[in-house]
Amino acid sequence: MPTPVSPEVAVLDERDASAQQLPDFTTEAYKDAYSRINAIVIEGEQEAYDNYMSLGTMIPEHADELARLAKMEMKHMKGFTSCGRNLGVEADLPFAKEFFGPLHGNFQIAFKEGKVVTCLLIQALLIEAFAISAYHIYIPVADPFARRITEGVVKDEYTHLNYGQEWLKANFEASKEELFAANKANLPLIRSMLDQVAGDAAVLQMDKEDLIEDFLIAYQEALSEIGFNMREIARMAAAAL
Ligand code: PL3
Ligand code: FE2
Ligand code: FE2
């Protein structure tokens, strides 16, 4: 007769095993998926740099602070470039440019129209919450080199999210209507970006539902800090359904 194993022991064993099971970073399948994900992150950091520099011209009293945030994005971009190099992967940058195209286009239109609230919602809330969720879910399944880099980056992204949150909180009543409209136009784009990246993310052992959950936590928390009530936040989140 087999020795009975207590359920506690079985659960512990399972957790230990799964905690150690990292993907094989050397397979062609992994590198192929990484060439797109790595490019998305590099392009995202580069565009974030450009966006904070643009925001600095719209909010001249914060130009120095925004230039400091932009510089952090440049450092992130370089860090993620070295992650690809470390794995021997060439980032598919044309793919990533296309991936960001619609959101990038909306930011550019808002910038030209001087819509600082829309620009802040796109960059400091949506893109930063997307990055925070992606980096959180990536860290436990990353190779050791990329994990160290990503852990440093994710702390900075909270600083960026916080910048947008505080500005919008201080200008809440005047920004409210534009925030509703900008959310309605741009949250569905984030949703479709998540859908597009899900297949490659799965190869990196990142789960789509985890990404969505983590994104919504960061985004809804920011909206609540800014001053929206529960009903308004629910209505805004529903724009992505
Ligand atoms: C702004 O600071 C950063 C903008 C980057 C956006 C990143 C979106 C990431 C989606 C894919 C998730 C993979 C994470 C893996 C990191 C190598
Ligand atoms: Fe960044
Ligand atoms: Fe950022």
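^ fe (ii) ion complex. Confidence is low (pLDDT under 50) at residues 1-17. The pocket of hexadecan-1-ol (ligand 1) is lined by residues 37-38, 40-41, 44-45, 48, 73, 76, 80, 83, 127-128, 130-131, 134, 138, 157, 160, 197, 201 (CB under 6 Å).
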